[in-house]
Amino acid sequence: MLVWTKQGKAVVWIAFAMVFGVLVLAPFLVVIAAAFAGSWNGVLPSDPTTSHFQQALSGDELASLSVSLQTAFMGGLLAVLFGTWGAVSAANTRFAKLADALHHLPIAVPSVVVGLGLLVAFSRQPVLLNGTKWIVVIAHLVLMVAFSYGTVTAALQRIDPSYAEVAASLGASPARVLWQVRLPMLLPAITSAAGLSVALSMGEVGATIMVYPASWRTLPVSIFALTDRGQAFVAAAEAVVLLTATVVLVLVLDRLRGRAAER
Description:
- The two termini are 40 Å apart.
- By secondary structure, the chain is mostly helical.
- The protein has helices at 6-36, 51-56, 59-90, 96-108, 111-121, 133-158, 162-169, 174-203, 208-211, 219-228, 232-262, and strands at residues 123-124, 127-128.
């Protein structure tokens, strides 16, 4: 029910601010405070320090950030490629519902199940990927493809098919219609899918922890390992680094999406 009175609106906004502050804002503030805390024995942290960030941005921890960035780009962008191909191929066909179900199947089950399935499938010949970075990339691809597929499919439903039909009636081949009409119109959705896939890939841990080799440890896995060893302050610093890197990537991809929409 809509609220029209000033008093009612004020109550709604206060309630929203309280819920948002407790459930969303407070955890971020606590993590940021812990990242700079030298100790935390009372209500508030004490002995502020930047040493945790120095550790988070050096050695194996910095290598984990590089691994996360590489995995996000490879897995996320491959997910965009496969998701776009699946959405365009299945559009307006009798297999559309089946394709939709298959593409969303990986996110309908726990991510650890996906990781275990990949670990079993690729731990023997003829395709032996266990112990390599590629099994991590494939895990991210499998989990992110549903989001890319869904984003592009939604955009396809909003696009007027008459543009492609006119191009075809003027003699353009199906390939030319695809490359010069349909894909350019889908470019904003594709860049949005890329941003979503990369952001989700940066934070993925469930399937990754099942399949990652010691030489290819992502930053979320490092954060989990640090908290498991009781190094919560360093883990908090790494979480802030992960959050910052993800936000920067999303902003860059969103800028690209804006340029694609202008075109």
